[in-house]
Amino acid sequence: MSTREEISEELLLEEETVQQNEIVLFNDEVNTFDHVINTLMSVCEHSPEQAEQCSLIVHYKGKCTVKTGEYEELKSQCSKLLQAGLSAEIV
């Protein structure tokens, strides 16, 4: 086995061990599209187009994953979404 193959195998193993979580945003009958879009842009750093698409998916499908990453990174963002009156959870 060459050194290059060993390094590649080590990198693949490291990537597999990183657990990814998601912030899922749920539909509600309270918040306006503008509020949801603006909140996603400020909290999750979405582009206007991405935030609009997520708000439409939430409206029509009931939920949408709005951010993916490690739990500790998502924790504060999810809290900010909740403080803004949105329904969200980390899964």
If helices are DSSP runs of H or I spanning 4 or more residues, what is the number of helices?
4
Which range best describes the helical content: under 10%, 10-25%, 25-40%, 40-55%, 55-70% or over 70%?
A: 55-70%
- Under the CATH scheme, the architecture is 2-Layer Sandwich
Low-confidence runs:
none
Broad structural category: alpha+beta
Q: How much of the polypeptide forms β-strand, as a percent range?
A: 15-25%
The average pLDDT value, as a whole number, equals: 90
- CATH level-3 fold name: Ribosomal Protein L30, Chain: A
For the terminal residues, how far apart are their CA atoms? 39 Å
> How many separate domains make up the residues?
1
Number of strands: 3
Order of helices and strands: HEHHEHE
What is the CATH first-level class name?
A: Alpha Beta
Give the full name of the CATH homologous superfamily.
Ribosomal protein L7/L12, C-terminal domain/Adaptor protein ClpS
Largest sheet: 3 strands, antiparallel
Strand order of the largest sheet: 2-1-3
Question: What characteristic shape results from the CA principal axes?
Answer: elongated
Roughly how many Å is the radius of gyration?
Answer: 17 Å
Task: Describe the structure concisely for a colleague.
The protein is α+β, with helices and mostly antiparallel strands. The protein has helices spanning about 5-15, 35-45, 50-60, 70-85; strands at about 20-25, 65-70, 85-90.
Topology of helices and strands:
Blueprint: H1 3-17, E1 21-26, H2 33-43, H3 48-61, E2 63-69, H4 71-83, E3 87-90
Antiparallel strand pairs: 1-2, 1-3
Helix pairs in contact: 2-3
